[in-house]
Amino acid sequence: MSTITSRIGRRSFLKFGALAGAFGTVGALASDEAIRTATETELKEAHAGSKIVKTICCYCSVGCGVKAEVKDGVWIRQEVAQDHPISRGGHCCKGADMIDRYRAINRLKHPIEKVGGKWQRVSWESSLDKIATKLGDLREKFGPDSVMFIGSSKVSNECEYYIRKFTAFFGTNNIDNQARICHSPTVAGVANTWGYGAMTNPVQDMQNSKLVLVMGANPAVNHPIAMQHILTGRECNGGKLVVIDPRYTKTAAKSDLFVRIRPGTDIPFVYGLIRILRDEKLYDKKFVDDRVYGIDEIFKECDQYTPEVVANICQCEAEEVVKVARLLAATKPGTLIWAMGYTQHTIGSSNTRIGPILQLLLGNVGINGGGTNILRGHDNVQGASDMGCLANELPGYYGVAESSWKYYAGQWEVDYEWLKNRFKSPEMMTKVGNSLSLFPFAVLDEENAKYNGGTPIKAIVVIGNGISTVALTHKVKEALEKAELVVFVDPFVADAAVIPDKNDNLFVLPASTQIENSGITVNTSRVAQWRFQVVEPLYESWQDQKILFELAKRLGFYEEYTRSLKKFGGVEAWPDCATRELSKACKPIGLQGWQPERIQSHTLNWHLFDTVSTEGSGAHAGEYYGLPWPCWTDTHCGSPVLYDIKKPVSKGGMGFRNRFGLEHNGVSQLAAKGSFPVGSPIKEGYAQITGDNIESLGIKLTAEEREIVKGKTWTTDDSGIINKKAIEAGLVPYGNARARCIVWEFIDPVPKHREGLHSPRTDLIDKYPAIADKTGHFRVDVRYRSEQTAKDWSKEFPISIVSGRIVEHMGTGTETRASKYLAELAPEMYIEIHPHTAAAYGVSDRDYIWIYGTNGGKIKVRAFYSYTILPNQAFMPQVFSGWWSGVSLADRFPDGTVPNALGENSNQVASYGYDQQTSCPESKISLVRIERAA
C-alpha cells in the first residue's frame, strides 16, 4: 500500500476512499479487484471522462476565472483557476459558490403568469403570445414610448447589443440598465474630461502603484480579488494605501492613512488638496502645460477651500488635508479608486471630474501604477454601457442623434426611413429616453407624459435586472401596480415581482444563467473574456437571445432584426455572428480587433499572460490579456493603459481624445508640441482622422482607398482603412488632444460643491445650494433646490445613512440570497449604529428598530453596535429584499422560488435625489430617524 499511496495524488486517494466505502457496503473490500493501480486518466481527473470548461465568474466586475468540471452534461465540480491572470486562483465567497448558483433548487423553472392574484404555470408559447399581443396593442394605441425596457448588466455583450437593437426596432429610447444607478456619473464625468468614460488601467496594474487613494469605495468587501492586487503591491512595491470615507471600512482597516469625511463632501476635500498642490508648487506643471486645458479655472475655484474651510465642510481635521496632499505629491505613481460612494450624489458627475483633474495635476495619467481605477459593479456592466443599453446611447457610445441612427440603419441593413417610422416621430427618435432611476415617475405622474410622446409608460419589460435597488422603492412598487403589463425575465424570481399588489398581467420568464450561454463579458478594466457555455439550460429556461428572437417574430420585425447577422453566419452561428457584428459597429471605442476567435483564444490560453503587465507569451506574445479596448484592428494588441504616450500606437499608446473641438475661447484643444506617442510622425497634437484630412497628416492613399473613405471618419469607416493606415503610420485614429477641466456643456462647467438635497448641515445650504429644479430630465420633472429647501430635514431625520454592499451578497441579492451557503453566512438585514446613539434611543445590541425615511417609507431591522461609524451616522447593506415595512413577502413568491435569506430593502428609506447630469440616484446622502421596535 505504501508504494501505491506514494504515487497517487489527493484526488485519486479520495476517490479510492469512496470506492473502498462502496465496496465495503457489499462485503467486497477483501476482493483482489477492490483496489487496483489508478489509470493515467484517473490520476489526472477526479471523474473519469469529465472535461474542464473555462468560464468567467458571474458576480462582480473583476472578472475572475472559473474552471468547471463537467461530466455527461452536468457541472459536477468547480475548480480553482490558479493560472488565471486576474484572479490567480483566488475567489471571494460569491465566486466560490458559482456552481451552487447554477443548480439552486429555488431557480425559476418554467414561465409563470399571475392571474386573479394567483401564480399559474404557463407555456413559453402562451406567455410570449400574450406579452407580444399586449405590447403590440399598447404600441398601436399609445405609441412605442408607452413601453419601458430595462436591460441587464449580467448578460453577454452580444445579448446587450441585441437588447438595445430590439428597443430600437420597437421604436423607443426607453431602455436602461444597472449602470444608470451606479456609474452613469462616471461615464459622463470621465468621458468629458479626457475622452473615454472608463477605467484607465488594469486591475493588476495597482501592484505597480506606490500610492493607492480610495474615495467612496470599499474593495476589500465589494471587489476582494482587486483588493488582493492592492495588498500585493503594498507588500512587494512598498505602496501606501490612503482611504477617504465617511465610514471606517474593512479597506480602511488596511490603510496607512484614513481620513473620515462627511458624506457628499468629496469635492471640497479634493479642492483642498489641489489648493495645497498649487500653493506649494507640488503639481506636475509640464504635464499640465502640455496636455491639460482649463486648469486656471480650477485654481480659481480652489481658492475658497483653505484647509480650515475644508475641515468645516467635511468635518475632518485641517492637518489631515495637508498631510494627504503632500503624501500624494511625494509618492508616485499613484492611482485613484472610486465606486458608488463617489457617484450616487446629485453632484456625482462633478465628483467624477474632480478626481481625474487631481490625477492630471499629479501627472498620474497614462502611466503604469497611475490612472483612475474605477471599480464597477456587475460582471458585465462595462459591456452593457459599451453596447448602448442606455437611454441616451446607441452601441459604441454613439448618441441618439439623426446621424447616429443613419449610421446604425446601415450597420443593421435596414432602410433608414423604415427605422425612423418605427418611432412615433423624428423628435422622439432623437430624444433621450426614460431612465431606470426615474421611470416610476413616468408611470405615475401624468404631467410627465408630455416628455414621453404624449403617453405615460404603460408596460415595463425587465431583462435580468433587480429593479428593487432603485432608490424610492415604494415608487417602483406603485409604478408596477399601475402598469398594464409587467414582465420579468430572469433565472430567479426578482424581488420586484412580489413587491407590488398586482393580480394580473404579471409574467416571470425563466432565463438561463450566464454559464448556460456563451459570449463576451467585459470586466472593469475594459478586458474582454469569453464566457464559455458550461452546460445546457436547466429546466425550461431559455437563453436570452432566444427570448428576444421569439418576441421579435411575434412583433413582426424578426427578419429585419436578424438581417445583419446573415453576413456573419446567421442566427445559427450565435454568438460568434453577433460578436463580429458588434465589433464592426462599435468604432468609437475601437472594437474592430475583437474577433471571436481572438477573445476565445485568450480565455482558453489565459495561462500565457503575465499577472501584472498582462502581456502575453508564446502564441500570444505582443498582446495584452483580453485585448482591452481600444483594440483598433484585428492585429492590434489592445490598450491596457489609456493615454500612455510612452508607447507607440501599435503597442497601445495614445494621447487624449480629440472630442471637444479644436479650440475653445481661442485656446487650442490639441496637445502641445513635444507631446505625442512614441514613434508618431506628428510631434504635437492633431485632429481626429477623417477621409478628408488623412492625407494632409502624411498618410498616403491609393485612388481606390481615397474614394472609399471619402466623407468618412474613423467612427464611420466600415472599410477599416482609416484605422489601419493610422496605426501603421503611428497615429491614433481619434487624434491627440488635451484633457479638459472645463466641461462647457454641463450645468457646472467647473466642478462645484453643492450640499445634498437632505443635508444635515443646513448652515451650508445657502452657500452651496443645489441647482434649480429641472424639467424633462430623462423625460421627467426633477426637484433639486425646491426639495432641498422644503424644510429643515435634519430636525425630523437626524441620522445620516451610508449604504453599501457586504461581501456575501451583491445587487438586490436575488442571486446570492438564493444560495443556501451565502444565506447562512449573511442571513438577515441589519443596521450598524454607534453604541452611544443606541443608548440614546434605548436600543440594545441585536434589538429590532424601526427606521423612517424622508420619503415616508419605513423598515424594521436588527441593530448591530458598531464603532465604524459616527454617532450621527448609520450603515445599512443595500442587498436585501423580501420584506416590506416589517412584513415578510415569502408567501408571495411562486412555489419553490423563495430565496434562502430575506430582509428589508434599504432603498425603501432612501431619500429623494438624482445626479444633475445623469439621473443616478443620490442614495449615499439619506436622512432617517429611528425608533426602538416593540
Descriptive overview:
With 934 residues, the protein is an alpha/beta fold. Helices cover 30% and strands 15% of the residues. The protein is built from 33 helices and 32 strands. The protein has a seven-stranded mixed beta sheet with strand order 5-4-16-15-14-6-7, covered by helices on one side. Strands 24-28-25-27-26-32 form a six-stranded mixed β-barrel. The chain has a five-stranded parallel beta sheet with strand order 10-9-8-12-13. Helix 6 packs across helix 24 (544-555), helix 7 packs parallel to helix 24 (544-555) and helix 11 (266-279) packs parallel to helix 17 (348-362). The chain starts with a helix and ends with a strand.
Helix and strand topology:
Elements: H1 2-5, H2 10-25, H3 40-44, E1 51-56, E2 65-71, E3 74-80, H4 93-96, H5 98-102, E4 112-115, E5 118-121, H6 124-142, E6 147-150, H7 157-170, E7 175-176, H8 184-194, E8 211-215, H9 219-222, H10 224-237, E9 240-245, E10 257-260, H11 266-279, H12 285-291, E11 292-293, H13 295-302, H14 307-314, H15 318-330, E12 334-338, H16 340-343, H17 348-362, E13 372-374, H18 381-386, H19 402-411, H20 416-421, H21 426-429, H22 439-444, E14 459-463, H23 473-482, E15 485-490, E16 506-510, E17 519-522, E18 528-531, H24 544-555, H25 558-562, H26 576-585, H27 596-604, E19 663-664, E20 667-668, H28 703-709, H29 721-729, E21 739-740, E22 774-777, E23 780-782, H30 785-788, H31 793-796, E24 799-804, H32 820-825, E25 830-833, H33 835-840, E26 848-853, E27 858-865, E28 873-877, E29 882-884, E30 887-888, E31 903-904, E32 926-932
Parallel strand pairs: 6-7, 6-14, 8-9, 8-12, 9-10, 11-21, 12-13, 14-15, 15-16, 24-28, 25-27, 29-31
Antiparallel strand pairs: 1-2, 2-3, 4-5, 4-16, 17-18, 19-20, 22-23, 24-32, 25-28, 26-27, 26-32, 29-30
